[in-house]
Write a structure and sequence with these properties.
- This protein is an all-beta fold and 71 residues long.
- Helices cover 0% and strands 35% of the residues.
- A hairpin with a 5-residue loop joins strand 3 and strand 4.
- It is elongated.
């Protein structure tokens, strides 16, 4: 589950076909620098992990000019 300022923006149920160390990327609108994004999951052995990041200033990449970037 992914939350942006406590609002759920992504949920997923992945099965055994997902790699051991998957790469996760997604976009959600409305993020501004300083907002919090929380990612939490439970793996197939029941272990849980939760991480939180703060959105940084947008990059100078013209393809990302309106997005707050996670760093």
């Amino acid at each position: 589950t992914a939350k942006h300022n406590d609002r759920i923006v992504l949920t997923a149920e992945w099965g055994a076909a997902v790699s051991q160390n998957p790469f996760l990327q997604f976009r959600c609108k409305g993020g501004v620098p300083g907002d919090k994004v929380h990612i939490g999951w439970v793996d197939d052995t029941g272990d849980r992990r939760d991480d939180e990041v703060t959105l940084a200033e947008p990059s100078h990449d013209p393809d990302c000019k309106e997005d707050a970037m996670i760093r």
